[in-house]
Amino acid sequence: xxxxxxxxxxxxxxxxxxxxxxxxxxxxxxxxxxxxxxxxxxxxxxxxxxxxxxxxxxxxxxxxxxxxxxxxxxxxxxxxxxxxxxxxxxxxxxxxxxxxxxxxxxxxxxxxxxxxxxxxxxxxxxxxxxxxxxxxxxxxxxxxxxxxxxxxxxxxxxxxxxxxxxxxxxxxxxxxxxxxxxxxxxxxxxxxxxxxxxxxxxxxxxxxxxxxxxxxxxxxxxxxxxxxxxxxxxxxxxxxxxxxxxxxxxxxxxxxxxxxxxxxxxxxxxxxxxxxxxxxxxxxxxxxxxxxxxxxxxxxxxxxxxxxxxxxxxxxxxxxxxxxx
Length: 325
Prior knowledge:
By secondary structure, the chain is mainly α. It has eleven helices and no strands. Helix 4 crosses helix 7 (203-223). It is globular, with a radius of gyration of 19 Å.
């Protein structure tokens, strides 16, 4: 159960992002916040990975960043690093564009709901391994819970005050494409990182390398925005929380769980993020949680339980990094 719990705890960390932003400066742009988050969190992950690599160098063989897979076939590891880093960088602008064009409800549901499905389908296409009936049922149930929480099925659903799209407003096709792009970006990042883990990379070296590259490319993005919010106490506190907790700590846990579970399983487990965000919005920010959203919380939690509980006849992760669930 530890890999499942690690990914769920990572998703809980992810889910605090919205609450942290609510306590931060109102004039900080989403692009600036996202760039600062990746720069701080990715930079710390890179330092951790470098330190652990230097400690292991004398006794443990470190994977060659330019080498292909163990069989000598497949994309070189440096290419997988770039692909994973590109997925990290592409996710946030695509996600925020989708929510700005179609509202938080539609944008969040399409992005978070499509990510596990796209991950599972890509994993199936690339590795010819079906994620399994348990994954399929759990993903459908959890995604239904996300839809109920969003309030898309009625005016009494969703969390009040979250910028829900008006039911009379036409859905923007470019917005849907952007949200699907966010889900695809997450899937690409997850599968590329999983491929590195299967080649013998440690979770810390994988996350540190991927986010270190993303941090470097986030510097010009941050410099192109108004960074005055970072000079305030609430702004600095928000940036440190987003960088250290929702990125550094979260992705160390995420990487450790990803090395021991299927990418499709991990992607579905991270749907605990909207569950956490909704609960925090209600308990901490005082937002109103109507009837359908309460049902959605229960349904989403049920989907995660279905996935995490060991079922009879279901294969367990073999010892070592990269073992499927």
